Amino acid sequence: MDTRFIKIPLAAASLAYAIQLFTVGQVGAGVGMVLVAALLVLITLQSMRLLMAFVSLRQQKMEDARKWLGRVNPKHLWPRRRGYWYFLSGSLMMEHNMNEAERLLKEALETGLKQDHDKAAVKLNLAVVASAKRKTKLAKALLNECKRLDAKGVLKKDIKQVEAAIRSPQQMRMRGR
Fold this sequence. Notes:
The protein is mostly helical. The protein has helices at residues 4-23, 27-58, 62-70, 79-93, 98-111, 116-132, 136-149, 156-167, 169-176. Helix 6 (116-132) packs across helix 9 (169-176). The protein is elongated and about 70 Å long. Mean pLDDT is 80; it is low at 171-177.
């Protein structure tokens, strides 16, 4: 379940309760509840920014994705959310610097991701990087791991494209540029 559906109503309820506390004269408790509501809103905004970056990336709107991702400070994220920040940053970096992309994607796996299909997507990107670096065995091993993790078949089409590119290295080298 997405925690946004819990945090947003909780923040609204906290704010409503703070207003009620102010009206009955309990200013100290009201200030405390305003701080709780503000904290919940800030946490939700960080998650929404990551979500917007992900949506922009899926729509191939790279500049928008960079803009949204730039609005998130990874140091202020929970570890699992930070894993997604590394994943998105690494995916965007693949256009410019394969070594840096590889570092960020590996960091995403080390930091942690919730869903297996997200781990599969990282492994798929790492397979693209390995193939671009002409490390075919590693790319194939990463693809096999990707297939294992993608039990629902979310990445089936993408996996087939990368497999075809590995079989035809010229196509992958052109992508890596």
